[in-house]
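Forum: Protein Structure Q&A
Topic: Joint prediction for protein chains with partners

I've read a bunch of threads here and the consensus seems to be that you should model interacting components together rather than docking separate models afterwards. I'd like to see that in practice. Below is the full input, 594 residues plus whatever partners are listed. Could one of the regulars post the assembled result?
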Amino acid sequence: MATIAFLGLGNMGGPMAKNLLAVGHLLTVFDLVEAACAAVAAEGASIAASAAEAAESADVIISMLPAGKHVAGTFLGEGGLLAKVSTDTLILDASTIDAATARQVGEAAAELGIDFMDTPVSGGVAAAAAGTLAFMCGGSAAAFDRAKPILEGMGSSEKIFHAGPAGAGQVAKAANNMLLAVHMIGTSEALAMGEAHGLDPAVLSEIMKASSGNNWSLQVYNPWPDVMEGVPSSNNYQPGFMVDLMVKDLGLACEVAESCGVDNQMGKKAMAAYSAHQAEGNGPRDFSSILEWVKAQ
Amino acid sequence: MATIAFLGLGNMGGPMAKNLLAVGHLLTVFDLVEAACAAVAAEGASIAASAAEAAESADVIISMLPAGKHVAGTFLGEGGLLAKVSTDTLILDASTIDAATARQVGEAAAELGIDFMDTPVSGGVAAAAAGTLAFMCGGSAAAFDRAKPILEGMGSSEKIFHAGPAGAGQVAKAANNMLLAVHMIGTSEALAMGEAHGLDPAVLSEIMKASSGNNWSLQVYNPWPDVMEGVPSSNNYQPGFMVDLMVKDLGLACEVAESCGVDNQMGKKAMAAYSAHQAEGNGPRDFSSILEWVKAQ
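Posted by a regular:
Agreed with the consensus. Here's the joint model:
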């Protein structure tokens, strides 16, 4: 069992930290929100007064922060943790941030001989609570070997992937979520066309699932209300995964594409659609509500 | 066993007719290409001198023709088959054509009391030869009950769907193939972004298959060369399913959307991409070669 500093106890970080406690790790936690710290302390974690204090005696540091600037601020510079921790510390940043910052922090850590991985997650709040998250990891093979047993405390073993070198975890997540947005909108268009021509969306969904149109949106997250039980579309688009977060992830994907010169035309179209849907006040709703936007065009 | 008139013995119709012969149906066939007729006659079919002659004593007429104008010309008007056949004839048009023509022929047949279904197929030449096609059927429930045992001679029982009323088979196929084009391009963009950032396309494919980006292109038709065995991308994009045919199907999908007022923005983007790729001389190549177009933008 490891001594872990856990930084960032939001909707995702909170349940992730609790799952690490449940499998027996020793946790010292830090978050600006005191109530978030108290909730995890109630299950056995110690509370630190700062990220640096949490990291002091930790073998492993795990961060779950909102954006690249928070990750850079935590780890880089004179006051950052990289300058303070011992070289045998393992650092896992599970935040979803821009690949450029992830690569920058990873390279700074490598220069100091510290194992750092970007390990963004997939699966959302439900998987965080259930301990069945997917992890997409960027960094060295040696760091991945150290990280995997720790990540298994929060995720499904068969969904913990070594995507490639530093930053590759963020690239993989951005690419995946862009593809998700593309096929969610494409699925919405296909269902809207069919329904307008008198087809039952449930029947058309079954046909496309059995055919070459098949995709994750059809399989487990059908955007048409009441085609599938237990999904946001059958619950007035309560999230689930918010439009706001999809717009964030599409922005990261467009940065990834731009920085390597790939013209991601479908991804840009998805970004335009989700941004327009968000601008109409749908940011807090589930991302499958893009069906309503498609029908309203 | 039925007495069947089979009209149109091209790359798809030829093997479909042979499979019907193999399960014991009596076939009279017609095609403008004599060699195509001779090939099916060698397996037991009779050759007719015209569509009308083939249809004369048939219980069932199956047509597999290139476009809506051929289907309309075969069935409608004074010289058309609807005016000649008995009302207990079952007509199955397996061609991929515009939904408006399919609906027009279906309604003309219904007025005469003739059972007509549009039954476009999915699966391509390989599935036609193997007798494992999918059929998407538009027309009455009674016609579907009559059609299914016949279609089972050419397709997989669990992939024979009653999509809805007249024209619904064509709508379902157009919607499905549009969605296929959308996720094939989206998948190509995601893989191109990843590879440009140093990720192995095979590893990124595995990650996205296990995540919410999962779709048919990743599962069975990966567009990146040598990620998957036995697919066109690993064989210099030999078809498979040609770019020319995808452009045809996207054109039909855009007609379907236009005619019901759905703004299929992803579908239109896919149409623009495939048309541009076709214009660069790639019409006869497999449609997964759109990866090359994505990388070249």
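Chain B touches chain A through 70 residues (CB under 8 Å).
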